[in-house]
Amino acid sequence: MLFKLSLTGIKSRFKDYLVLFSGLVMAAAIFYMFEALATNNSFIKANSTFSLAPFVFQFGSVLLAIITFVYILYANSFLLSMRKRDYGLFMMLGAKSGKLGQLIFLETVAIGALSLVIGLLVGVGLTALVGGLLIQRLDATAAHFNAFYLPAMLVTVIFFLILFVLAALLNQRVLRKTPVLALLKSAAQPIHVQVNPIKTVIQIIFGLACLVVGYITMHMIGTLQILGIAVALVTIVLGTYLVFDSLFTWLLTRLKRHENFASRGLNNFTLAQLNFRIFDYNRMLAMVTLLFALALGAITTGMGFQKNIRLFTESAPYDVVLHDPTAKVNQAAAKIKVKQQDHYTYKVTGTTVYFVREQFDAQPIYAQKPWQKKQVTAEYQLITGKQMTARSPLRWQSSLQALLLPQDSEKTITLVDQAAFTQINAPTHQLTTLIAHDFFANLAAIKRVTQLDQRQNKVSINYSMGTTKYDAYQMMNGLLSGFEFMGFFLGVAFLAMLASCLMFKILSGAASDRLRYRMLDKIGTRQRLLRSAIAKEIGVLFLLPGVVGVIHVLFGLQMFTTTSLLPNAYHDLWLPFLIFLVLYGLYYLLTVKLYQSIVLKK
User: Fold this and answer.
1) Residues 50, 40: contact at Cβ < 8 Å?
2) Cα–Cα dist 378/313, whole Å
3) Is a pLDDT exceeding 50 seen at residue 531?
4) Which of the listed residues 467, 485, 513 is the one where a domain comes to its end?
């Protein structure tokens, strides 16, 4: 009987549940995708270029799990509010609170399980799509890659089932402590707000002060580190709520007193609508603002990390370094549009590598400069054989060692003249350095030559050890492409969560608002004015979190610029902002259409 009642309750409000838990579906789908890409060990071992990506996606899973937990706790209160009146009626008819507790437990778990199943199906599709894009981007092999990965599915199911059970237990607890009358009248009780000017001013000042402290802390994150993150988190969350709680209430009061504005069209009615649920809206808008900032910030930083690939790649001095190149290697290298090509000979005896000093006089080599404060990437300068002899080996030896084969990279380098070099009884080896006109235009040829050189010299592929542009490209592409995908899909997940919160909060009051709009229609109000009033009311609720969220992101990017994680974080900022705002705008239009379809006559 309880199971039948729970199914009936779900069916009666299926559309409302669907709106609310669309965010949960996306969270489950993206969580599964991150786990499938991060835990497939066979696929990771088969692709050295993918070795850094699992760390990125595991980090994304943890971050998504934390935000999802907060989201479910918040959405849980919405879930309970939809059924409070029904539960109150059941109690009036003699139902025991224990039985109702079991009913709400079943409903919560059933909705969660349904969202999880849909989320897993979407997740498998997303994994196939994103996995294919990542494999293409990282030039990895598709061997052992599987969009349906059972261990990742088990982790996702266990994690979300635990969340749903916790949510159900919380609902039971709230239900038992709520009086029957409060349950019956919960949807029709306005919050009467008495605006105290002094209290409002204090709240505004304190809220803005919290935001300023949070923004300054994010700018000083390199110095404050973990403490800075904790302080920024507390002050920005608190400041956001206080600003909404004080500013929004104060603005409504001021606008209602402004006769020219209030008496224009249906503005007075719109202000009354907002004032009816002002307290709940303040809390909800603060939550949505934080999710908005997280979503926009995730997409912006993800795209910013992708830009860093070129920055770090171009910092390496040489595009390709060849060791004893064969005719086949030279033939492949001829396809590269070379700007500069130098040749050096060396001999290896025991723990020493000998180079000819005169060759460096004729063909200076790039040596790394000492690191300076606030330096983002390594910087190099040309150095001759005479300069190398005059300076300490510490200034140039490591740069030259990095160009050698792994078995010789830790040996001592000695410079000798041509005569002394000829007397050394050891095989002569050749080291060739190439600088292309455009690395990215010649990437395919550079990749081919590098792989041939590694195969010929039996070098295990480990791009983190190399110092060529191709080594830097492979290493940074593996890491930062993972961040790019993670940032984008975290942004999508957070956007779905905030939109579902905002849409549900607005649409949940549509049924009770229908009577008011029908009364306006009966007294002769034009449909155009009614539609305009709805668009304005919902527009305000979408605009306020958007404006404050954008401000949060603009200051939040300081964390990445001051720590040099994203040196050019503000470059081409319009693109991620445009993508996100278009998606956000589509949610706004959808909400307006759904609300109008509920409250207006067809």
Assistant:
1) no
2) 10
3) yes
4) 467
In terms of domains, do 196 and 305 share one? yes
Q: What range defines the domain where residue 439 resides?
A: 320-467
For residues 568 and 570, what is the distance between their CA atoms, to the nearest angstrom? 6
Q: Which of 25-29, 206-210, 368-372, 491-495 has the highest mean pLDDT?
A: 206-210
Q: Are residues 310 and 221 in the same domain?
A: yes
Q: What percent of the chain has pLDDT over 90?
A: 14
Phi, psi of 376 (to 5 degrees): -95, -50
Q: Could you tell me if residue 433 is inside a domain? A: yes
Residue 231 to residue 228: CA distance in whole angstroms: 5
Phi, psi of 319 (to 5 degrees): -80, -40
So what's the pLDDT on residue 14? 64
Confidence at 463, pLDDT banded by 50, 70, 90: very low
Q: Are residues 300 and 278 in the same domain?
A: yes
Q: For residues 273 and 204, what is the distance between their CA atoms, to the nearest angstrom?
A: 23
Answer whether 204's CB lies under 8 Å from 243's CB: yes
Please answer whether residues 18 and 115 qualify as being in contact, where contact means their C-beta atoms are separated by less than 8 angstroms: no
Does 297 lie in the same domain as 231?
yes
The rounded distance, in Å, linking the Cα atoms of 405 and 349 is 14
Q: What is the pLDDT of residues 306-355, one digit of tens each?
A: 778 888 888 888 999 999 998 899 999 999 999 999 999 999 998 899 99
Structure tokens at 558: 């300081």
Domain-embedded: residue 186 = no
Residue at token pair 């224009």: 264
Closest by CA to 188, choosing from 503, 542, 508, is 508
Q: Which helix (H) or strand (E) holds 290?
A: helix 278-315
pLDDT in tens, 134-176: 667 666 555 566 778 888 889 889 988 888 888 778 777 766 6
**Residue 430: helix, strand or coil by DSSP?**
strand
Residue after which a domain boundary falls, among 448, 467, 486: 467
Number of domains in the chain: 2
Q: CA 559 to CA 565: how far, in whole Å?
A: 8
pLDDT of residue 48: 53
3-state SS class at 69: helix
Residue type, 25: V
Give the DSSP per-residue string, 71-114: HHHHHHHHHHHHHHHHHHHHHHTT--HHHHHHHHHHHHHHHHHH
Residue with tokens 């909800």, as numbered in its chain:
284
Residue 455 CB neighbours (<10 A): 11
Higher pLDDT, residue 262 or 346: 346
pLDDT at 112 over 70: yes
Enumerate the β-bridge partners of residue 434: 320, 341
